[in-house]
Amino acid sequence: MLLIHCPYCGEDRSELEFRGAGDAHIARPTNMADISDAEFEAFFFLRQNPKGIIYERWRHIHGCGRFFNAVRDTVSDRFIKTYKAGEPKPDINAAPATDAKVETYEALEGDAR
Amino acid sequence: MSGANRITGKGRLTPARTVRFTFDGKSYTALQGDTVASALLAHGVHLLGRSFKYHRPRGILSAGPEEPNALLDISRDSARRQPNVRASVQEVFDGMKAESQNRWPSLSFDIGGINNLMSPFFGAGFYYKTFMWPKKAWHSIYEPFIRRAAGLGVAPTEADPDHYAGRYAHCDVLVVGAGVSGLSAALAAAETGAEVMLVDEQPEAGGALHFDAGVTIDGQPGYDWAQATVARLQAMDNVKVLTRTTAFGYYNHNFVALVERVTDHLASPDRHTARERMWQVRAKRVIVAAGAIERHMVFANNDRPGIMLASAARTFINHFGVAVGSKIGVYTAHDSAYEAAFDLRRAGVSIAAIVDTRDNPGTGVLAEARSLGIDVLTGHSVTDTSGKLRVSAMHVTRNGGGAVRKIPVDALIVSSGWTPSVHLFSQSRGKLRFDAATQRFLPDTYAQNMVCVGACNGTDDLQAAIDEAVSAGVSMAREAGIDGSASTTPRGEARFAWTGGMLGAGEGAGADTTVKAFIDFQHDVCAKDIRLAVREGMHSIEHIKRFTTNGMASDQGKLSNMHGLAIAAEALDRPIPQVGLTTFRQPYTPVTFGALISHSRGDLFDPARKTPMHAWEEAHGAEFEDVGNWKRAWYYPRAGETMHEAVNRECRTVRTVAGVFDASTLGKIEVVGPDAAAFLNLMYTNAWDTLKPGRCRYGIMTREDGFVYDDGVVGRLAEDRFHVTTTTGGAPRVLQHMEDYLQTEFPHLNVWLTSTTEQWAVIAVQGPKAREILAPLVEGIDMSPESMPHMSVAEGKICGVPTRLFRMSFTGDMGFEVNVPADYGQAIWEAIWARAEPMGACVYGTETMHVLRAEKGYIIVGQDTDGTVTPEDAGVGWAVSKKKTDFVGIRGLKRPDLVKEGRKQLVGITTKDPHVVLEEGAQVVADPNQPKPMTMLGHVTSSYWSENCGRSIAFALIAGGRAKMGQTLYVPMPDRTIPVEVTDLVFFDKEGGRING
Amino acid sequence: MADQTQALRREPLANAHGGSGGVRLTPAKPASRISLRARADAVGALSSALGLDLPIRPSASAISNGRMALWLGPDEWLVIDENGADLMAAAASAGAMHSATDVSHRNTAIIVSGPGAATAINSGCPQDLSLKACPVGKCSRTIFGKAEIVLLRMSEDTFRVECWRSFSPFVFGLLAEGAEDAAQ
Question: What pTM, to 2 d.p., does this model score?
Answer without folding.
Answer: 0.95
